[in-house]
UniProtKB/TrEMBL annotation:
Pfam families per UniProt: DDE_Tnp_1_7
Xref: PANTHER family: PIGGYBAC TRANSPOSABLE ELEMENT-DERIVED PROTEIN 4
Chain ranges of the PiggyBac transposable element-derived protein domain: 3-40, 42-220
Entry protein name: PiggyBac transposable element-derived protein domain-containing protein
């Protein structure tokens, strides 16, 4: 029985929700393996930052199989790339401008549209910066810093007709864009017929969108595969609600 109630603040609620999600993703066997009295996680010796260690823990079972990890800029780092490379796993990820251990001559370079600058070390880690509409920084252990031609449909304002123009893009950028489509598609499906509103508290949005919304999308995909039926996700949500009533 609790003898004393202690007030909580939004930061502590965020930590608890994040911890619950982490517990579902990374089974450690003991509750005290996730936290201690000093509010820091105890998941073993930290090799990099907390964000990079999350990637390492979640990928332990798929290392040394020649896979390629496509990573968001929040997680991408030189240390993470060398770790995966040592475990026969490639990394392709966008980079933030303030990342450490990345050549500053690449991150701070002033480029014109279509220009590229890159550096590669002896281990095979490539860091490049390419200018399109805006700067794009990317790290890859799989691709050379080479440009490939692509056709891009462009709407000409004067005639309002579409025409294709040749465009040079880094191969790493093309591969990254193809790979991240799966994540964007999941977010897109979850956004249809959403119950989220502006006035909803952030922690309720987290529960509704991340936990419940993702579960509904996964259930919809499984239902279509099992029944071979074509059904819109909005209709599936309605049927799901009827079954739960």
């Amino acid at each position: 029985r609790l003898n004393k109630w202690i007030d909580t603040n939004p930061d502590e609620i965020k930590q608890m929700l994040g911890l619950m999600i982490w517990m579902g993703l990374v089974p450690l066997g003991r509750l005290d393996s996730y936290w201690s009295e000093n509010s820091k996680s105890e998941t073993g010796d930290r090799q990099c930052g907390l964000a990079q260690d999350v990637c390492m823990e979640l990928s332990n079972l798929i290392l040394n199989e020649g896979r390629t990890m496509y990573i968001d800029n929040f997680y991408t780092s030189y240390e993470l790339a060398t770790y995966f490379l040592a475990n026969r796993t490639h990394v392709v990820g966008t980079l933030r401008a303030n990342k450490k251990n990345i050549p500053r001559c690449v991150l701070n370079a002033k480029l014109k549209r279509g220009e590229i600058i890159s550096r590669e070390n002896n281990e095979g880690v490539v860091v490049l910066k390419w200018k399109d509409i805006r700067d794009l920084r990317i790290l890859s252990t799989k691709h050379a810093p080479s440009l490939v031609s692509v056709n891009k449909t462009h709407l000409r304002r004067s005639t309002k007709r579409q025409h294709k123009r040749a465009l040079q893009k880094p191969e790493a950028v093309l591969e990254y864009n193809r790979a991240k489509c799966g994540i964007d598609l999941s977010d897109q499906m979850g956004a249809y017929a959403t119950t989220l509103r502006k006035g909803v508290k952030w922690y309720r949005k987290l529960a509704i969108e991340l936990l419940l919304g993702t579960s509904v999308v996964n259930a919809w995909v499984i239902y279509k595969a099992a029944t071979k039926q074509k059904i819109q996700i909005r209709k599936f949500r309605e049927l799901l609600v009827q079954q739960l009533l």
